[in-house]
Specification:
407 residues; alpha/beta; Rossmann fold; Dna Ligase, domain 1; D-amino Acid Aminotransferase, Chain A, domain 1; 8-stranded mixed beta sheet; 5-stranded parallel beta sheet; 14 helices; globular
């Protein structure tokens, strides 16, 4: 029986997954997204359709059912490229048509580790380090007692719900220098309609080079079959994408991978998952910042390193064949910025030299620059986005800004 991938998303993460299917199987994946533009627009390797309400549960399920009904002779491999769509797949898993399969987990269990309040509780139970944390909500008001000093990092416990509420100054993550500014920001947040917990954490000093990303794939039996660790050297610095990697280098970290693998297997997790961590120079520990139930924006680093994410999914979920345990060991640079950016903005000389060496040797990949994607409109749009990164870094990551922000 043939299979067809059906992907939800519209960003670099979604495009990278579609590219993997196209390269491995020669397929043109169907894709639904909520964004009018981006790397999937005008692409010749995928069939993108704009659906403004694709992130609403009822419309999402309707789109899946319509596509499955139109392709009854095929098994539909449903893929969510980000946290939001992974949760929708999980939420609707019992309502999916018979010919639709997906790497999904029980929704209540998934909520318990994507909702940050309960996620940090689970980390506690497994002895995994994370920054000092205080849980805040609107009921607390001004009656709070944070057991650590500013500056603070504040972020929503439910990032998907948070994105539905618009207000001036909204960012995915905020660094707050004092309690007065924090109270002002919370006033905006709760006035906009967000009513769930907010996470207040101690700020861990250090710039982008202190970030590590670990990606895992757990098969349908809850066993980890893929581990990949990358050292992030540059992150994006625009409010909507702050914290997303802009340049990283793949490099194994067996001790860290074993600890996080044990966590995932102990909770029975299935599918792709990505941990973000930050190195704390004060005690020499890597501390977990976040977890996303998706392959991550840099998932093409896996494919480029020899582990095609599409083949992994198809083998496990469509063909139902056992997977061999794989650890990504190939060292390469994944980037979505111009190649001159690392020379200017990577702060640590040894890491900068390492990145530049790999770039010179050709051991790098930009997932958006795909020779198979020939539409000139897309090429122009992608190049504009890449070049625009220069301005974003010069504005938000200059030497002056780094000294002010990271001290």
């Amino acid at each position: 029986m043939k299979f067809l991938p059906l992907i939800f998303g519209s960003g670099t993460d979604a495009y990278s997954i579609a590219r993997a299917f196209n390269e491995e199987y020669g397929l043109i994946p169907k894709m639904y997204g909520t964004v009018d533009g981006g790397p999937c627009f005008f692409s010749s390797i995928l069939d993108y359709k704009l659906e403004r309400n694709a992130d609403e549960s009822s419309r999402f399920l309707e789109l899946v059912k319509d596509y499955a009904e139109a392709n009854t002779d095929a098994k539909i491999l449903l893929v969510g490229s980000n946290d939001e769509f992974s949760r929708l797949i999980s939420k609707n898993r019992d309502s999916l048509p018979e010919n639709v399969v997906a790497a999904s987990w029980d929704f209540e269990k998934l909520e318990s580790i994507t909702y940050k309040t309960t996620f940090y509780e689970a980390l506690d139970e497994h002895g995994i380090d994370y920054p000092q944390t205080y849980i805040y909500n609107s009921d607390i008001g001004l009656d709070y007692d944070i057991p650590f000093n500013p500056p603070y990092i504040i972020k929503p416990a439910d990032s998907v719900e948070y994105t539905k509420h618009q207000f001036w100054g909204r960012a995915k993550v905020n660094k707050i220098r004092n309690t007065k500014d924090m109270e002002i920001q919370f006033g905006k947040i709760f006035a906009a309609g967000y009513d769930k917990d907010f996470i207040i954490q101690e700020y861990i000093p250090g710039d982008d080079t202190h970030i590590t990303s670990c990606t895992f794939y757990s098969d349908k039996n809850g066993k980890v079959k893929l581990t990949s660790t990358a050292h992030v050297l540059l992150e994006e610095h625009l409010p909507k994408t702050i914290g997303d990697p802009a340049l990283l280098i793949t490099k194994p970290n067996p001790e860290l991978e074993a600890k996080l693998e044990n966590f995932l297997e102990s909770v029975g997790y299935t599918g792709f998952g990505t941990f973000d961590l930050k190195y704390d120079e004060r005690d020499g520990k890597l501390k977990v910042l976040d977890f996303n139930a998706a392959p991550g924006i840099a998932n093409y680093s896996l494919t480029a390193a020899g582990v095609n994410v599409a083949k992994l999914l198809a083998t496990d979920i469509v063909e139902e064949k056992p997977l061999e345990k794989t650890v990504v060991k190939k060292e390469l640079v994944w980037l979505i910025v111009p190649k001159d950016v690392p020379k200017i903005y990577i702060t640590q000389e040894d890491l900068r030299d390492r990145a530049l060496r790999l770039l010179k040797e050709g051991a790098f990949v930009n997932p958006l620059l795909n020779p198979a994607d020939k539409d000139i409109r897309r090429k122009v749009g992608v190049m504009r986005e890449i070049v625009a990164q220069n301005k974003a870094f010069s504005t938000n990551y200059s030497v002056k800004n780094r000294k002010q922000f990271y001290k």
